Automatic annotation (TrEMBL), chain A:
Protein name: Carbon-monoxide dehydrogenase small subunit
Species for this entry: Bradyrhizobium yuanmingense
PROSITE patterns linked: 2FE2S_FER_2
UniProtKB keywords: 2Fe-2S, Iron, Iron-sulfur, Metal-binding, Oxidoreductase
GO MF term (any one): 2 iron, 2 sulfur cluster binding
Limits of the 2Fe-2S ferredoxin-type domain: 8-84
Record carries keyword Lyase: no
A matching Pfam family: Fer2_2
PANTHER family xref list: OXIDOREDUCTASE WITH IRON-SULFUR SUBUNIT
InterPro entries: 2Fe-2S-bd, 2Fe-2S-bd_dom_sf, 2Fe-2S_ferredoxin-like_sf, 2Fe-2S_ferredoxin-type, Beta-grasp_dom_sf, Diverse_Oxidoreductases
Ranges in a coiled coil: none
From TrEMBL, chain B:
Keywords: Molybdenum, Oxidoreductase
Coiled-coil region: none
Gene3D superfamilies xrefs: Aldehyde oxidase/xanthine dehydrogenase, a/b hammerhead, Aldehyde oxidase/xanthine dehydrogenase, molybdopterin binding domain
SMART domains: Ald_Xan_dh_C
Record SUPFAM superfamilies: CO dehydrogenase molybdoprotein N-domain-like, Molybdenum cofactor-binding domain
GO molecular function: iron ion binding; oxidoreductase activity
Name this protein carries in UniProt: Carbon-monoxide dehydrogenase large subunit
Annotated ranges, domain Aldehyde oxidase/xanthine dehydrogenase a/b hammerhead: 24-138
TrEMBL record, chain C:
Residues in FAD-binding PCMH-type domain copies: 1-177
Gene Ontology terms for molecular function: DNA strand exchange activity; FAD binding; oxidoreductase activity
Pfam assignment, any one: FAD_binding_5
InterPro entries noted in UniProt: CO_DH_flav_C, CO_DH_flav_C_dom_sf, Diverse_Substr_Oxidored, FAD-bd_PCMH, FAD-bd_PCMH-like_sf, FAD-bd_PCMH_sub1, FAD-bd_PCMH_sub2, Mopterin_DH_FAD-bd
Record has Cytoplasm as a keyword: no
Keywords for the protein's UniProt record, in alphabetical order: FAD, Flavoprotein, Oxidoreductase
Residue positions of the active site: 12 (o-(5'-phospho-dna)-serine intermediate)
Protein name in the entry: Carbon-monoxide dehydrogenase medium subunit
Length: 162, 790, 284
């Protein structure tokens, strides 16, 4: 059996790049992402899986990376906020947030954007109710959600047209 | 270089210039900072609300892996601290507050010991190894209980647990209360809240090779933090650099001086290495200041027609275990001075007592005192309307201060002056947008079929900017009311603004650029804004009390004007005409009525730096710094309306509509202004319906210790907010702005409470205390039904 | 925010996982979705010596639908239960309940087995399992045993699971054709857990109730079956009076929990209100 101090080797793909990292068993995925890989766009806003600031995509699903062990990421394909816009452009969700003033302090924003990706994947044309329910896993303290809902609505209507 | 803007930038709904990095995950918050050799601090917090500290055994922690240092309060006694408040109402008894508790703890969460280790995990592990003997003492958490005879006493120099008694008086309340047709009393509770910035507090202190110290901290007030840390830790202020990078929300909570703000700088110097502290969310609930926590007893005297003759208020403001930074000012000056709200109430009598209890210190939170003050005025006038069965709108209209009465000093106050406003205009605009009459009849009609809908109304006004400096001395506020701005033009004519204000998400880079662009007449993209670095920004007070546009923005405006004035002198010299013949428009200096070719701003800037053709005795350069001290404070106001449906069987409230009409003076950027209203209103709705800090009254344990039990609203809990504006420019500053950040959180709580009370009025319910949770509403309905014999 | 150190083993077989549990029953915890376990480790409310990750165990995965019933692997996530079309064609209760659990991110990770084994008194699946008369399949040292869901929950956060046993699968008998289902829940505003949740499976024959099962969560120390209320309804119409009486019986079936947020009276009231509303929703 392994000892507690032992580091486990984890291999996964993140934002398209393959990585192998040694991690203590107790290391949370969010800390691995932020500290070992320097991808600090993923934030930690709580410790009980309520706020969603740490939301990333694992194998195409939005998850709270503060509630996943780094060692569990073995073989996973992870996308963080930094993976959406490798260049200097904004992706459509980010652009909609800018257009509709859907962010203020910006701390919840990366997690919110990652959740919106999931929401639009599940429901390409969500109603306002669907949007508000679909963002239940993310807390924003600045915007009152009003403009976040507007931003998502703008994407939904585009979805219907196409 | 692109052409000067053809349109005025102030008033344009520009999209934010700061968005890109935040959207791309490239923001830089304190916890994102990682320095070579950085150590991590973790804090052991008191598990008891009130206890004597016996032996603190640090031996196991000290020998744990990675640990560099472990300390208890004893070791710091006399070295750093105590933590002094920055606002001390004259006559206050100030309890001594050590940086780490020495012999006694007074709230669950107070620092008892600390560990510095190589990793955060090691620091947490070692904290778990510290053994402390406590002798538990009786605790008191409630302000009404704390002032009773026999209540546990917190501080020897604070008898009766009251630090401050503050009185306000105007007219003769006693006389009018004898003469009035009606006098009614009510007791209202302003529930204790947790500000809940999504970014918790964090700090990194890093010793530099040159002997200076850099402190990275999410501070709303970087220059104030520099002063406080310097004074409390004993570092020469000029050798301390405070850097506030991106901040994940502040709402007042990030403008105080906390133990950790002092410990990291102290430890970094002791250990010769960067030291970081990051606050977990559950830790934050017991270590970052709370908000509100008042109980008010109100008496209102009025005529049969609903005209209010007088108001009497007794406030008990719970400030927790110590006087935090601004704590003695909140329940006093900031609350009871504003108790008459938007109404003409000439006879007013208020007393506020500031009460210490075994709870987390309470300090500024979005609105600080003004939500509590507006709640007094609004709950009172609503009670009058209910008592007389008069329409809530008409009673307000009858009592409003009239437009012609501005500037208006309520109850003859020396301290409060409302600079301008038109409350009737706000009300009319709100009623029209809300379709009040139709909804009023809709409510009545639906009640017959067992559907309980209600309309809430609330009006508010307050004062923004904490100024001018000379007036602040009277209230014991140990800082100025000015803000500084430096506008520095480079040799190409582009501008960098160094502002003492500090954005925590408000979008100052965009709004301050708009202010400067109008004066400088250069395109927005030719303007950069620097904030949050005491090495770069000359001086400042930072962002609180909705002051950034009124004071910080005015400072940028005046500074930009000085730039243009100097540029004009240089242009005159270049054009070889008299300065008074030169006019500046569309980014060019010209001599009207002549065929002299104009000279552009950028050419003038170039000349300012090459200095070849400057007027006699004019210094080269185009760089102006202003310390703008306003002559007065602007008074935003507003009328908000809410439409709700209450399910009496479950107590669940459905918010059907919310209309906010606010007068915040000149709108710099309507898009950002609406964003401020949305966010403020939702924090106000949160106070009204969801959030409440709970303590166990017996042992002082914090019962809302995490986001699993403290209900910060999600998107599904709140409605769309229809935000509209009325602009009456403030006469107190050159751009006419009043302040906006706090408006929503002031208006929304009474508005929501009134809506719910209106909805359940058929049951005979006339009072409910926040938060209006479903169980609480349901219990009130049950009680009322029982009383009615149903 | 950082758990105390522990060992971690990714189990490659059910037997290995059970052996590890048996080696150190007190110090070993199973890790599935981790959405209950990890927060408690982060807050250091628990500090096991070993975490056994059962995420790779194929025998704990999947949804199988056969003539006789439905078999759900313990590792099936809330999101998978929400999304499964064949499952929800048979038992739309899954979609209704899963959609009300926590939030999308948590649903993507949290598992039904984890939820049931944790036996949070306010969790949703226990009520659903009771209404569906599910059977819990438990793997242990001597093979598998099964137990009815109604006998599975013992007390607050307590089930019949022994320290060296693993909740492996859930078996649900195929419902009689025409059975209607409903799950209603009042959510706690912060945690999203049920203040009260009620799951009902009900069949009507010529407007008379022929079958009824009611599961209730959130109200008591553990989820329970509303037997008296269900029995009362059998053979009756869903008239206002009958519904009222069933609601009364259901609220009398337990001593309700009382906490800072909601009193016992409030919960008892919610049981009545929610049952009435649920039954009205089922009335043709």
């Amino acid at each position: 059996m392994s000892t507690r101090e032992e580091r486990h080797t984890v291999t996964f793909e993140i934002n398209g790049a393959r990585k192998t990292v040694a991690a203590e068993a107790r290391r949370l995925l969010v800390h691995l992402i932020r500290e070992d890989l320097g991808l600090t766009g993923t934030h930690v806003g709580c410790d009980t899986s309520q706020c969603g600031a740490c939301t990333v995509e694992i194998d195409g699903l939005a998850v709270k990376s503060c509630t996943v062990l780094a060692v569990s990421a073995e073989g996973a394909s992870i996308t963080t906020i930094e993976g959406l816009t490798p260049g200097t452009d904004l992706d459509p969700i980010q652009a909609a947030f800018h257009e509709h003033h859907a962010l203020q302090c910006g701390f919840c924003t990366p997690g919110m954007v990652m959740s919106v990706r999931q929401l639009l994947k599940d429901q390409p044309a969500p109603s306002e109710h669907d949007i508000r329910r679909g963002l239940a896993g993310n807390i924003c303290r600045c915007t009152g959600y009003h403009n976040i809902v507007r931003a998502v609505e703008s994407l939904a209507s585009k979805g219907e047209q196409s | 270089m692109s052409q000067a803007p053809a349109i005025r930038q102030i008033g344009q709904p520009l999209r934010r210039r700061e968005d890109f990095k935040l959207l791309a995950g490239k923001g830089r918050y304190v916890d994102d900072i990682k320095l070579p050799g950085m150590l991590h601090m973790a804090v052991l917090r008191s598990p008891h609300a009130h206890a004597r500290i016996g032996r603190v055994d640090l031996s196991a922690a000290r020998s744990a892996p990675g640990v560099r240092l472990a300390l208890s309060g004893q070791a710091l006694d006399g070295k750093i601290g105590p933590i002094r408040p920055n606002w001390i109402i004259p006559g206050s008894k100030v309890p001594s507050r050590p940086v780490i508790a020495i012999d006694r703890v007074r709230f669950v969460g107070e620092c008892v010991a600390l560990v510095v280790a190589e990793t955060l995990a090691e620091a947490y592990d070692a904290v778990g190894l510290i053994d402390v003997d406590y002798e538990v003492l009786p605790a008191v958490t409630d302000e009404e209980v704390a002032v009773r005879d026999g209540a546990p006493q917190l501080h020897d120099n604070v008898p009766g647990n009251i630090t401050t008694i503050y009185k306000v008086r105007g007219g003769d309340y006693q006389k009018v209360s004898r003469e009035a047709d009606h006098v009614i009393g009510l007791r209202v509770v302003n529930n204790r809240l947790i500000p809940t910035c999504m970014e918790t507090r964090a700090i990194v202190a890093a010793p530099e090779l040159d002997g200076t110290l850099t402190v990275y901290i999410g501070s709303q007030v970087p220059h104030m933090h520099r002063r406080w840390i310097a004074e409390t830790v004993g570092i020469p202020e000029h050798q301390l650099r405070v850097v506030a990078p991106d901040i994940g929300g502040g709402f007042g909570a990030k403008m105080h001086l906390y133990s950790e703000d002092l410990l990291c700088p102290y430890l970094a110097r002791e250990l010769g290495a960067p030291v970081k502290w990051w606050e977990s969310r559950s830790e934050s609930h017991q270590s970052t200041s709370h908000g509100r926590a008042h109980t008010e007893r109100i008496e209102v005297a009025f005529t049969n027609e609903g005209k209010i003759l007088g108001l009497k208020v007794e406030t008990l403001g719970n400030v927790g275990a110590y006087l935090s930074n601004m704590a003695s000012g909140g329940p006093t000056v900031n609350t009871v001075n504003f108790g008459t709200g938007t109404y003409k109430i000439d006879n007013y009598e208020a007393i506020s007592r500031v009460v210490v209890t075994n709870t987390v210190p309470v300090d500024a939170y979005r609105g600080y005192g003004r939500p509590e003050g507006a709640y007094i005025a609004e709950r009172a006038i609503d009670a009058v309307a209910r008592h007389l069965k008069l329409d809530q709108v008409e009673v307000r209209r009858k009592n409003f201060v009239q437009p012609a009465e501005f500037p208006y000093r309520p109850y003859g106050s020396m301290g409060v002056m409302y600079d301008s406003g038109n409350y009737q205009g706000l009300l009319d605009k709100a009623l029209a947008a809300f379709d009040y009459d139709r909804r009023r009849s809709e409510c009545e009609a639906l009640r017959g079929s067992g559907i309980y809908r209600g309309i809430g109304v609330a009006a508010y006004t307050h004062m923004c900017g904490m100024a001018p400096s000379r007036r602040l001395a009277v209230s014991g506020f140990d800082r100025g009311g000015w803000e500084s701005a430096r506008v520095s033009i480079d040799s190409s004519g582009r501008a960098t603004i160094y502002s003492g204000s500090m954005s925590q998400g408000q979008g100052h880079i965009t709004s301050l650029s708009q202010i400067a662009a109008d004066v400088l007449q250069i395109p927005i993209e030719n303007i950069e804004v620097v904030q949050g670095d005491t090495r770069q920004v000359q001086a400042g007070h930072g962002t609180f009390n909705s002051r950034s546009m009124a004071v910080g923005g005015s400072s940028v405006h005046v500074s930009s004007q000085r730039i243009v004035a100097k540029a004009k002198k240089i242009a005159a010299s270049m054009l070889e005409v008299d300065e008074k013949d030169v006019s500046y428009s569309a980014g060019a200096f010209s001599v009207p009525g002549t065929d002299i070719p104009p000279v552009t701003f950028s050419k003038v800037a170039r000349m300012a730096y090459v200095g070849h053709k400057l007027p006699d005795r004019l210094e080269p350069g185009l760089d102006e710094t202003v310390f703008y001290d306003p002559t007065g404070m602007g008074s935003p106001s507003g009328v908000h309306l809410a439409y709700v449906e209450v399910d009496p069987e479950t107590g669940i409230v459905d918010i059907l509509d919310y209309v906010a009409v606010d007068d915040v003076g000149t709108l710099i950027n309507p898009r950002l202004a609406a964003g401020q209203i949305h966010g403020g209103v939702v924090q106000g709705i949160a106070q009204a319906l969801y959030e409440e800090v709970s303590y166990d009254a017996d042992n002082g344990q914090l019962l809302t210790g995490s986001l699993l039990d403290y209900a910060v609203p999600r998107a599904e809990h709140v409605p769309n907010i229809r935000s509209l504006f009325q602009e009456t420019p403030s006469p107190t500053n050159p751009i006419g702005v009043k302040g906006i950040g706090e408006s929503g959180s002031i208006a929304a709580p009474p508005c929501m409470v009134h809506a719910v009370l209106d909805a359940v009025s058929p049951f005979g319910i006339t009072h409910l205390d926040m938060p209006l949770t479903p169980p609480r509403i349901w219990a009130a309905v049950q009680e009322a039904r029982k009383g009615a014999g149903q | 925010m950082i758990p105390a150190a522990f060992d971690y083993v990714r189990a490659s077989s059910l037997t290995q996982a059970i052996d590890l549990l048996r080696n150190d029953p007190d110090g070993t915890k199973l890790l599935a979705g981790g959405h209950t376990l990890l927060p408690s480790l982060k807050l250091r409310l628990a500090s096991p010596a070993l975490l056994v990750d059962i995420g790779d165990l194929a025998e704990l995965k999947g949804i199988e639908i056969s003539e006789t019933g439905i078999r759900i692997g313990a590792l099936t996530t809330h999101a998978e239960l929400f999304a499964s079309l064949p499952l929800n064609e048979q038992l739309p209760l899954f979609r209704q309940a899963a959609g009300l659990i926590a939030d999308p991110q948590v649903r993507n990770r949290g598992t039904i087995g984890g939820s049931l084994a944790n036996a949070d008194p306010a969790a949703d699946w226990p009520a659903v399992m009771l209404a569906l008369q599910a059977e819990i399949e438990i793997a242990g040292t001597s093979g598998f045993r099964t137990i009815l869901a109604r006998d599975f929950f013992v007390d607050i956060f307590s089930t019949v699971l022994e320290a060296d046993e693993i909740l492996a699968r859930i078996n649900i008998p195929r419902p009689t054709a025409g059975t209607r289902f409903v799950y209603r829940k009042i959510r706690h505003p912060a945690s999203g857990f049920a203040v009260v949740g009620i799951a009902i499976a009900l069949r009507l024959s010529q407007n008379l109730v022929s079958e009824a099962t009611i599961g209730v969560t959130g109200a008591a120390n553990h989820a329970f079956v509303g037997e008296d209320a269900a029995d009362f309804l059998i053979g009756k119409t869903l008239s206002r009076e009958n519904i009222d009486q069933a609601a009364r019986l259901l609220s009398e079936a337990t001593e309700c929990l009382s906490d800072r947020y909601a009193s016992a009276d409030y919960r008892a009231n919610l049981i009545q209100v929610e049952l009435k509303r649920a039954l009205l929703a089922l009335t043709p």
